[in-house]
Specification:
By secondary structure, the chain is an alpha/beta fold. Helices cover 59% and strands 11% of the residues. The protein has helices spanning 6-12, 14-29, 42-49, 137-154, 177-189, 215-224, 250-256, 267-275, 295-320, 324-329, 331-350, 353-383, 386-395, 398-410, 417-449, 455-486, 497-530, 534-542, 546-564, 568-595, 612-632, 639-651, 656-680, and strands spanning 64-65, 87-98, 104-117, 124-129, 161-167, 197-199, 202-203, 209-210, 229-233, 238-241, 246-249, 260-264, 598-600, 606-609. A five-stranded mixed beta sheet has the order 1-4-5-3-2. Helix 9 runs antiparallel to helix 16 and helix 21 packs antiparallel against helix 22. The longest helix is centred in the C-terminal third of the chain and has 34 residues, at 497-530.
């Protein structure tokens, strides 16, 4: 399992948000000027608050192909579903636009989804349009999510096929994700989608259906197109009507239009309603119980949690030795570290070792950041700015340490399918660490190449690089934890390298499509509104949105590590592990900003959701799905999946940010269980 958690990275990166305050205080204390504004000041707060309620107009479509993996695809396990011949499915996607009077109006656009066999070793997905501007990054996200999810559900190797999506009009971003997934599934299975039925809803990584906006207007569009049945996400019985300016009962609204509106929780129920056929559930039919951690793994997790708690205590002791005025400036970070430490300690006493581990890591990470920032402030106040660069070199030891951890992972051979999942998870931490090191190096390069920078800019670059190096070092330690805790479990032999490569290609392409969608929906419009370049806006969001920076770090780190690893048996798990990370976090971005409508404060913290009822339903469905999958692969001792699941169940009882992280942990658990099921041959069995 990838024991690094989003809370650890997300809460820690709060240190980035405090940098403008710290820099301002330092400059004031030294008599400097703080008049020049950096990208991480007010712009960051505005970026955090920019939560669109509707997607902007899509851009022109493009054909997308995955980047080749580091080693060639060889063979994939034979699935239990039928061999696919060329097949096409026609569906009508729902959308909301603005009419000539400036009022919201719904409509439908015909979409042809085709799948045909190909001889090759790359995933090939094409997007075509008959109306200029009818598709774009937001639309391609739906297509890629459809290909990824359908291939995982049916244990298909997507490199064996060509996929094409042809839209005859306008498509409303990721709200077509579930419909596109159903269409790809129908192509795989040779089924047809009934012409009088359509649906709206995003597709989540675990196959559940995510909430969307504009349902009342989409129902009007469906009725005008002659539809009889419209499927909507479970948990969205009520949705906001932009015309009436109030929530309405979508089932009742549909009845008035002559529509039968059905609420569906997942792709299995949606597929039955769309095609009249049952979608193979594979291992989800097992009905087994969620397994506990084996005693040996339990002891290792407890020991690791205790070790991280000790690291927190060391950081707290160092922090308490700082000058009082410095402690006051960073007291909020240390209080946050204490909060996680208290949870970790309580969880250890109750035997909740997965929860203890997560919070102990959070405590140590935030505590180390508070101490590191305080140390830099002391150096600056006592010696000036030049010694800070030397101090930064000491923190940059993560660059050297990364090479050592990489060698450790490369020396590890996977005996079982469970070992392979562990190795993937460990590599995912390594890839994120590499990406964070890249970001730190970018700060240093910017500093070295800057012409006459302000003192405020110099301090911000140095402090930010220090934060990124510290986080990279934490991820390296967690990569080692993963390897120690999860190796040596399971019974099925490790999978062929080709299985890993084909999945890695698909997930990596899906992650890139999701990142492009997020930039199209949120980042680029914000850049236009605030008169900055898209590149500047991306840098601002990277300093403020943890899911975004981690997804991009995983992609960048994977690319770099792929150039360093020559052994295909090691390159494959590295690429797949980092791709899983990027895919999960990018999907979480879509859920946060599109499906749930996250509400954030000026510090970038999630305070609530415009669709809170839908979130509660998503958590219920995600819990059920993750539990089903865990029960199905219990014989393989799914260590990583169990730990994610246990963490998710506690997080869902917390605040808004915790609940979003809980959703991500459920998805991580489900994806890793699916991987283990595919590797062991469990997935796809009926």
């Amino acid at each position: 399992m990838r024991l690094r958690t989003k809370t650890a990275r997300g809460k820690v990166s709060h240190g980035l948000l405090t940098l403008p305050v710290i820099v301002g205080l330092l400059l004031t204390a030294c008599g400097g000027s703080a008049t020049k504004t950096t990208p991480t000041t007010q712009a960051t707060a505005q970026a955090a608050a920019a939560t669109p309620t509707a997607a902007p107009s899509p851009t022109q479509a493009a054909t997308v192909a995955a980047t080749p993996s580091a080693s060639p695809v060889v063979a994939v396990a034979t699935p239990s579903t039928p061999v696919v011949t060329a097949h096409s499915v026609n569906v009508d996607a729902l959308y909301v636009s603005t009419d000539a009077n400036g009022q919201p109006a719904g409509g439908t656009s015909p979409v042809k989804v085709s799948v045909q066999p190909q001889a090759g070793d790359q995933v090939s997905v094409g997007f075509f349009e008959t109306q200029a501007g009818g598709a774009g990054p937001q639309w391609t996200s739906s297509g890629w999510m459809g290909v990824v999810t359908a291939s995982l559900i049916l244990a298909k190797d997507p490199t064996d096929y060509q996929f094409s999506f042809s839209v005859g009009g306008q498509v409303d971003g990721p709200s077509a994700g579930a419909l596109m997934t159903a269409a790809v599934l129908a192509d795989y299975l040779g089924d047809e989608i009934q012409p009088t039925v359509t649906m709206t809803g995003t597709i989540n990584p675990d196959g559940t259906i995510g909430p969307v906006g504009g349902i009342p207007q989409k129902l009007e569009g469906a009725a005008k197109a002659g539809k009889k049945t419209v499927l909507v996400p479970a948990g969205q019985r009520y949705d906001y009507d932009e015309k009436l300016k109030q929530p309405v009962d979508v089932v009742a609204a549909g009845q008035k239009l002559g529509l039968d509106v059905k609420l569906v929780p997942d792709i299995w129920q949606a597929y039955k309603a769309l095609t009249g056929q049952d979608l193979p559930k594979g291992m989800a039919q097992s009905g087994g119980q969620v397994p506990p951690l084996p005693p040996q793994a339990f002891d290792k997790v407890r020991a690791a949690a205790t070790n991280w708690y000790a690291k927190y205590q060391d950081a707290a002791n160092r922090f308490n030795s700082e000058p009082e005025e410095i402690q006051q400036e960073n007291a909020d970070l240390m209080q946050e570290a204490q909060h996680y430490a208290d949870i970790a300690n309580n969880a250890l006493q109750q035997g909740q070792v997965s929860v203890a581990y997560q919070n102990a890591v959070n405590a140590a990470a935030v505590g180390q950041l508070a101490t590191q920032l305080s140390d830099l402030e002391v150096v600056y106040l006592s010696q000036g700015i030049d010694p800070l660069v030397s101090r930064l070199k000491a923190v940059a030891s993560a660059e050297t340490r990364l090479s050592g951890v990489l060698q450790q992972l490369q020396a590890q051979s996977a005996r079982t399918s469970g070992d392979m999942v562990t190795l993937m998870d460990s590599y995912s931490n390594l890839a994120v660490a590499q990406g964070l090191i890249f970001q730190a190096q970018d700060q240093i390069t910017t500093l070295a190449n800057a012409e006459d920078p302000s003192e405020e800019d110099v301090l911000t670059w140095i402090f930010t690089a220090s934060v990124e190096y510290t986080l990279a070092d934490i991820n390296l330690s967690m990569a080692q934890d993963v390897l120690s805790i999860g190796t040596g479990f399971g019974k099925s032999p490790a999978p062929d390298t080709g299985v890993l490569n084909s999945m890695a290609q698909t997930l990596a392409a899906g992650a890139r499509a999701n990142i492009a969608y997020f930039e199209s929906l949120v980042v680029n419009p914000w850049a236009q509104q605030n008169g900055v370049s898209n590149e500047m806006a991306q840098a601002i969001f990277e300093a403020n949105e943890d899911l975004y920076v981690e997804a991009k770090a995983a992609v960048a780190g994977s690319d770099q590590l792929g150039r360093q690893i020559n052994d295909p048996t090691q390159a494959a798990p590295m690429t797949l592990g980092s791709s899983l990370t990027a895919y999960a976090y990018s999907a979480d971005l879509v859920a946060k900003y599109y499906s749930l409508g996250a509400q954030v404060d000026d510090d970038g913290n999630v305070t609530g959701y415009s669709r809170s009822a839908a979130l509660a339903n998503m958590l219920d469905l995600a819990d059920r799905r993750a539990g089903e999958l865990l029960g199905a692969v219990s014989a393989e001792q799914p260590i990583s999946s169990v730990i994610y699941y246990e963490q998710a169940r506690i997080l869902r009882t917390g605040d808004a940010s915790d609940q979003l992280e809980s959703l991500n942990n459920y998805w991580e658990s489900s994806i890793l269980s699916e991987m283990l099921g595919i590797f062991s041959g469990t997935l796809g069995q009926k």
